[in-house]
Design brief:
Elements: H1 3-19, E1 31-42, E2 46-57, H2 60-80, E3 89-99, E4 108-121, H3 127-135, E5 140-148, H4 153-177, E6 182-193, E7 201-203, H5 206-209, E8 227-239
Antiparallel strand pairs: 1-8, 2-4, 2-5, 3-4, 5-7, 6-8
Length: 240
């Protein structure tokens, strides 16, 4: 291997060690090591709808009754859309006293009952109706919607394939520049990064916003955002 090829291999090895999270083998004679990033964008298969209920009243029982009434209306919305209320998952439930901080004695002036409900949907056509019907429920504080990919294994494989293809192309270019040809794959490691989904408030209750509910759902006729899977591959090839 000439000096030019050796120097390029050293650069690739240094960059790969800086990017990769997994251990790599020692580069041997007549081999070349390359690292590359790949990605694959997949259409989401699941919509995640979060509904936050928060009721504040003078007494704890009154706040509980208001929150319970809001939750019952959510159950009815689920049933009217052909969904089992059991599909809703409870994220948390809390009862908090509310204090008058202007009063030196910090007197309790009320109670706030809060709960968070999460619904996962495969049928995206139901989203608009559920959002519209739950938006005007009393004590519905926030709604948020995001899309995710539950069946992620095929997308992970595609992202890894893309990263390996790029690593092979890089290694092949270096080998060709040094007057050599790329041989078989001797070693490879894969590090796949799954996307982190953050639920952002999307719609507040129409009465709180001071506007009438829109006749068309905010998500109607739009395409759900694609989910991007990233992968990093370290690969060692033989040199001929």
């Amino acid at each position: 291997m000439d000096a030019f090829l050796r120097s390029l291999v050293v650069v690739l090895l240094t960059l790969s060690w800086a990017q990769a999270q997994t251990p790599t083998p020692v580069v041997q004679a007549n081999t070349i090591f390359a690292g590359a990033d790949g990605k694959f964008e997949a259409a989401p298969d699941t919509a995640v709808l979060r509904l936050d209920i928060a009721a504040q009243q003078d007494t704890s029982p009154a706040a509980y009754q208001h929150a319970a009434a809001a939750a019952e209306r959510v159950r009815q919305v689920m049933k009217s859309n052909g969904l089992d209320p059991k599909a809703l998952q409870v994220g948390f439930y809390s009862v908090q006293p509310m204090y008058d901080w202007k009063n030196p004695k910090h007197k309790v002036v009320g109670y706030r009952v809060s709960t968070s409900l999460t619904l996962k949907l495969r049928d995206f056509s139901k989203i608009g109706g559920i959002i519209e019907q739950t938006a005007d429920i009393d004590d519905m504080q926030n709604q948020s919607l995001n899309y995710t990919l539950e069946d992620m294994d095929p997308a992970k494989s595609k992202a890894a394939e893309d990263a390996l293809r790029k690593a092979r192309n890089q290694a092949s270019a270096v080998a060709s520049a040094g007057g050599r040809t790329l041989g078989e794959l001797l070693y490879a490691s894969v590090d796949v990064t799954q996307p982190i989904i953050y639920a952002q408030p999307m719609v507040q209750r129409a009465a709180m916003a001071g506007v009438a509910a829109a006749p068309v759902a905010p998500t109607a006729e739009f395409t759900p955002q694609a989910v991007t899977i990233n992968a990093h591959v370290n690969a060692m090839f033989a040199l001929r």
